[in-house]
Specification:
By secondary structure, this protein is mostly helical. 59% of the residues lie in helices and 0% in strands. The chain contains 15 helices and no strands.
Length: 259
């Protein structure tokens, strides 16, 4: 479970490590899949290309071959698709068992965190009976994840009375996601507020500390440690509310000064 990040905290909170070529340096995959001729022959794959074009992966220069394999340096269809397999083929870089490694080529820290979870063990040992990366993070979404996507994934195994006898944690997950989204929004407000005040006192250091706290929560979530994640989120919300309340009191007192 990883939450979508608001645009005002992207520079600090997004951990994409990709430094490859910009999308403007067009490769063979893009040249073929975006063409009108390709749309006429393969409308479904063309729509997939359009979804990619609107995604965060596109914005940071991650192209088809980075995740699917193949040779983007050629325009020949057969040569370009060497090493590309259907996602249900264990040889595919996007097979459910290989996704942590594939996604981890850019998101190393998230891969490490996920591999420390019980879900990762179940994913490998029980033939996919646990979530993998795209269960919670559809790669072509404009935002990395949505609360309903994550909760639906949780419900598929952890609904009350489930056949596997797994813990019924959907309500806990829903509460956690709601609180983390609140914290994310308040963290964004806090950063904007202090920036507008020209970063008074030790405010910049304080915001960095709060952002590190938020990242620690994200790490716990990728380990599926719900109890620790919830407590850490409550603690972060308390810190952020204290800032918000202090600013409110300052305005009511007519000082207009940042807390």
């Amino acid at each position: 479970m990883m939450l979508a990040r608001a645009s005002y905290v992207v520079p600090i909170l997004i951990t994409l490590l990709w430094v490859g070529p910009l999308v403007g340096e067009e490769n063979g995959c893009i040249a073929c899949h975006k063409s009108e001729d390709f749309y006429a022959r393969q409308p479904k794959l063309h729509r997939y290309y359009q979804d990619w074009g609107n995604s965060l992966h596109s914005q940071v220069g991650v192209t088809c071959d980075d995740c699917h394999g193949g040779d983007a340096s050629t325009t020949g269809m057969e040569q370009a698709h060497v090493g590309v397999f259907p996602v249900n083929d264990p040889r595919s870089l996007l097979h459910f068992t290989r996704q942590p490694e594939t996604c981890g080529s850019c998101h190393q820290d998230k891969q490490t965190q996920f591999e420390e979870s019980k879900h990762f063990g179940a994913l490998i040992m029980q033939a996919g009976s646990a979530p993998t990366c795209t269960t919670c993070h559809p790669a072509m979404n404009k935002r990395p994840s949505y609360q309903n996507i994550v909760l639906n994934a949780c419900r598929s195994c952890h609904a009350p009375g489930n056949r596997q006898g797994l813990p019924a944690v959907v309500e806990e997950a829903e509460t956690l996601l709601r609180h983390v989204n609140m914290a994310e929004g308040m963290l964004g407000w806090t950063s904007l507020h202090y920036a507008a005040q020209q970063w008074p006192g030790d405010s910049r250091k304080r915001v960095i500390s709060l952002e590190e706290h938020y990242q620690d929560i994200v790490s716990r979530i990728h380990r599926f440690d719900l109890a620790a994640s919830e407590q850490a989120t409550i603690n972060l919300l308390d810190e952020l509310r204290a800032i918000f309340d202090a600013e409110k009191r300052a305005k009511q007192g007519g000082t207009g000064k940042a807390p």
